Amino acid sequence: MQTFKELGLSDDILKSLEEIGFVTPTEIQSKSIPGLLENKPDFIGLAQTGTGKTAAFGLPLIHF
Predict the structure, then answer these.
(1) How far is the C-alpha of 41 from the C-alpha of 48, rounded, in Å?
(2) Is pLDDT at 50 greater than 90 in this prediction?
(3) What is the C-alpha separation between 63 and 59, in angstroms, rounded?
(4) Residue 59 burial (CB < 10 Å; 0-12/13-18/19+)?
């Protein structure tokens, strides 16, 4: 099981995630965050409602 730290997010974001109780990334987050942190230009993420898609693309945006 992956952690948000292993995905490469900044310490400030990790602290905030911990404070709100986010411990383990969902599947869509685990698959998308590393690629988005590498600044890949195109991204299409498909997942069911409530699986964390907004955080999947939002966390890398605030990382930079």
Answers:
(1) 23
(2) yes
(3) 6
(4) buried
